[in-house]
Amino acid sequence: MIDTLRLTAEEAMGLLERREVSAAELFAAYRDAIAERDGDLHCFLTTVDEPSHDGVPIALKDLIGTKGIRTTAGSRFLEGYVPVYDSTVAARCKAAGLPVLGKTNMDEFAMGSSTENSAYGPSRNPWDPTRVPGGSSGGSAAAVAAGLAPWALGSDTGGSIKQPAALTGTVGLRPTYGTVSRYGIVAFASSLDQVGPITKTVRDCALLYRTIAGRDPADTTTVDLPAPVEIPEAEDLRGLRVGIPRELNEAEGIEPGVKAAVEAAIDLCRELGAELGECELPRSVEYGMPCYYLVAPAEASSNLARYDGVRFGLRVGDGDFEAMQERTRDEGFGDEPKRRIMLGTYALSAGYYEAFYGQAQKVRTVIGREFAAAFERFDVLVSPTSPTVAFPLGARTENPLAMYLSDVLTIPPNMAGLPGLSIPCGLSEGLPVGLQLIGPQFSENTIFRAGHALERALAFDPVPPRLAGAAA
Amino acid sequence: MAITRDDVLHVARLARLALREDEIERLQVQLNAILDAVGKVSELDLSDVPPTSHPLALVNVFGTDEPEPCLPVEEALANAPEREGDFFRVPAEGA
User: Fold this and answer.
1) Is residue A331 in a domain?
2) Does A324 contact B90 at a Cβ distance shorter than 8 Å?
3) What are the chain B neighbours of A293 within 8 Å (beta carbons)?
4) In this predicted complex, what is the ipTM?
5) Closest to A364 (Cβ–Cβ): which among B12, B35, B52?
6) What distance in Å separates the CA atoms of residue A227 and residue B55, rounded to the nearest whole number?
7) How far is A453 from A345, CA to CA, in rounded Å?
8) From CA A243, how far away is CA A279, in angstroms rounded?
9) How far is CA A374 from the centre of its chain?
10) Looking at the 3D structure of chain B, how many domains does it have?
11) Rounded to an integer, what distance in angstroms lies between the CA atom of residue A435 and that of residue A423?
12) Active-site residue A118, yes or no?
């Protein structure tokens, strides 16, 4: 019997290597778990019946282009879209022998923090199905938490890997910008989008990051890694300088239970031998969200111009060309993409460009400088990943600004292109709390090391109690 | 800097969105609220700060200029809403 709720990808690899289970048996175990539990959780938009390769299966967020497998980005626009080529990350997973289990649910075009903006209905949190799994990579995170996939890929623009990982008790890495190819990924905001792993352990996260990272000639914004990815083994944090940015840890809206769990994890850093100190990011947090909600919608309004009813995706109406385009876009996009297209188009329009988009780009420079100053004194910065634990479905859907605040702590490092790891650090009200570990660009090995040592010491049980009795 | 109904219609036109009446009203309210919040960036005097358009300082990324096979026509047209021969077919302009 394969217990998919507990099995890590690394353990699954061991089972295959020792021939204790076959690849077909492993794949079937996850398919059985999906059949048993995904009716309630709705993590998957498409599932694959037969394994294509002999390795550990993987779930891919449904904006990762997969040749011959429908790729919707959570949008009606792409309901029938079947890519004719693989994204580079999908090709790298194939090259590593990882068969695709299916494509996971997400907020439409990755715009959202709960999966409630999916045109196909929300995913649910395995810890409490009345609550959201976070987003936009909520389907990937919930699938890993519920044992429906040993590991998964998501994508992160403002926090779409880190936040759902935090809300589901999983590990999520938003890599340094430029280390993972965006070729074949449905684009949202190109200067921010990064694909990254969602896993049960930090070691799994490092293994999957090693599989997908590296320069890709098809994406000229990618670079070679300065050093190979190391699979972490550290048991302590001796010699590591850990900074506690005041604004990220005392931001308005951080729940007391979240604060308590994060403070306990910070105390543990000290016990593990880290040198702790406080620091400040005076403008990064206060101006980070306004900056993001100008830059990202502006880039989105440009990227989403391609959905015009001509080459692929939905077309509505005939007659006049422009009327067809306008009707197609009105019917194809849900409320959130429309809101962001409108906001971005406004911020880029004549007369407002300098005041909004131009100014936001300068704020981005300020944020980068503040983080750079903090990293002169520290190797890693820590904070809560999300100000709150998983919130009830519907709680933030009526108020876009309330939903946007879900990412107030993940956005600032993202604006600076920094890597961030979220690991579960405890429970509040019976729901997982995520700890965000931020490092300088290309410091994945450092944050993996810190995350791994903390994970060992924390001994967080990643299995949602309500599923713990269920046989896989 | 309140967004008027005409502003909403103008931006929708630029973005090629044929908004329904209820969407126009809702978006006017929401865009005003969001712009109030993001307009905060203008509080800062950043006249001496250069803009960041990209998080990595990459300059002049060159590729090798070698011919490679491109997507075959049948595959390029595989997801077309409508085709005619080897072309994407669209409704006539101003029809």
Assistant:
1) no
2) yes
3) 34, 37-38
4) 0.95
5) B52
6) 19
7) 45
8) 6
9) 24
10) 1
11) 5
12) no
